[in-house]
Design a protein that fits this description.
One of its GO terms (molecular function) is hydrolase activity, acting on ester bonds. With 262 residues, the protein is of the alpha/beta class. The chain has 9 helices and 7 strands; from the N terminus they run αβαβαβαβαβαβαβαα. Helix 8 packs across helix 9.
Amino acid sequence: MPNIIKNMGLSDFSDLAAEVDRTAAAHNARCEAFLSVASDTETRLPTLRLIQDHPNIYGSFAIHPLYAYEYTDQAEAEILQCVASPKAVALGEIGLDYHDFGPKYSYAQPPLQQRIFRAQMQHALRLQKPIIIHTREAEPDTMSLMKEFIPPDWPVHVHCFTDSKEFAMSLVREWRNLYIGFTGVVTFKNSKKICDVLKGVPLDRLLLETDGPFMSPEPYRGKVCHPGYVPFIVKKISEIHQTSVLDIYQHTRLNTTRIFGI
């Protein structure tokens, strides 16, 4: 069963793993591996230690677009060191996020996000790593920059997708090894738009993810999200695609191996 768990340090993992196993077992599921995504300065080195100490945890490293101001020379060097690990299976999350969070927050502005997105895409290509894309409310610029840098056969995971169906279909057409990730959002009561997107994504281009600690599915919305909740996401996806739960697991397990090699 493919799972994504992000930003959990060593001190968190033992308790979390037990909770994951309990929840998954209750739904006749089993967690084979985890992908821990470190996309800021605080989580980078703890995640590196985590993947080194646990054989079934793999990593991805980068600077998230909202924290593009953290992309210093030192940060770049640390990211490249982490990505060089045999347990690092991707570079990301990278991309663009133009969501308006209001005056309370001071996230990186679009010009800086774009510059850092370009730099990190180039590193991923040079290092031959799959790319994990974070994009929100930035469809034209994301598409333009991806077309500029990413070859049509490159492995790409567009994670926690919440944008338009037209954008999703354009991505799938443009990159033949691109996969779109869906989270517990598909179970929310106000998820009609994203469920319509999901319905249009072929099963051989679909990934499951938690985006933990956020995006817990119903009936656990508001709790810390973890891979033990994946069965709730799978059930909803199977209903939307009018197929069996087993079929969703089989497709997404194969897709995970294709893109990340795990």
